[in-house]
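Worked Example 4.2. Consider the chain below.
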Amino acid sequence: MCGTDSGRERGTQTMKVTKLVSTCDIKDCPTIYATDRGTFLVQGETPSDHGLQIPAHETLVEIPMELLQKAIRDNLI
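Applying the procedure from the previous section yields the following structure tokens:
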């Protein structure tokens, strides 16, 4: 992560992940998770038509705008 120190060595301990908000109740939907590292994980589609130069160790995911709006409206982020 750009300029972020998680305070832990990666790979030495499994992060704790908490589901914050999703577009549905099954595992195959766009979802936002909070971690015990003070970060977020985002589950969504992996777009390939963005035209951006992304470093090999990073990735982009695409989620519906409504997912972020729901998270904000529900005071989850």
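Strands lie at 17-22, 31-35, 40-43. Residues 65-73 form the longest helix (9 residues). Compare this with Example 4.1 before moving on.
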